[in-house]
Amino acid sequence: DTEVTQTPKHLVMGMTNKKSLKCEQHMGHRAMYWYKQKAKKPPELMFVYSYEKLSINESVPSRFSPECPNSSLLNLHLHALQPEDSALYLCASSHSIQETVRDTEAFFGQGTRLTVV
Amino acid sequence: AQTVTQSQPEMSVQEAETVTLSCTYDTSENNYYLFWYKQPPSRQMILVIRQEAYKQQNATENRFSVNFQKAAKSFSLKISDSQLGDTAMYFCAFRRATGGGADGLTFGKGTHLIIQP
User: Fold this and answer.
1) Interface contact flag, A41 B91, Cβ < 8 Å
2) CB contacts, 8 Å: B97 with chain A
3) DSSP code at position B55
4) Nearest to B4 by CA among B72, B79, B93
5) Shortest Cα–Cα distance, A22 to chain B (Å)
6) What pLDDT digit, counting tens, does each position of A10-69 carry?
C-alpha cells in the first residue's frame, strides 16, 4: 500500500466555521507533512511531523492547527480562515530516517481543495 | 536556505519527441537530494526521478533521465519518446540530507509540459 489518503477532496467553508482536514497513510512512515498550493504555484511547506512530534512550523498563522494523533494519521484543524487561504492542501509522508535514497521519497495524497467564502 | 529555479513556465512538444526541462538550484549544503515530481490535472504529485548529490552518475528511469551538474548546480530532466500521458506540471525539488529527522521539499515554480498529438 503506497497510498496517502486525504479527506475530504473538496471543502467549502465560511470564515467563522471550524473544519478539519484528514490525512492517513499505512506505509509505516514516521514523517508527515502539510503543504499549501495556490493555483499555478508550487507547493509550500507548512508543517512537518517526525515521530508524531511537530518538528517544523514554517511560520504558519495560528488559524491553522496541525495534529498528529498517531503514526498513521495527520489532521489540520481550520478556524477563522480568510478567503486568501483558499488553496489545495497536500499531505505527504516519508521515512523519517533516510538510510537509503529510496527512503527520501515523499508520497503525496491527492489533496483537499479548500474554498473559503 | 535553498532556492530552486525553473526558467521555463511552459513547453510544448509533439508526441514521440524528446524534451528537456531545466532546473537550477542554490544551496550551501554539501549533501542533498534532488527530485523531479509530476503533477497531472488529477493533482497528485508523483515522483518521476531522484538523484543523490554525492553520486556523479546521472539517474535514469525508463524514458526519464537527468543531467546533474553539481558544480553548476544544475539538474535538468530529459524525457525521451514523449507520450500524451506525460502532459503535466513538472516540479524540480530539493531536500537536504539531514541524516536523521524529517525535512520538507523546496520546489521550483514548475514547468507546464504539453505533449501534442
Assistant:
1) no
2) 98, 104
3) -
4) B93
5) 16
6) 999 999 999 999 999 999 999 999 999 999 999 999 999 999 999 889 999 999 999 999
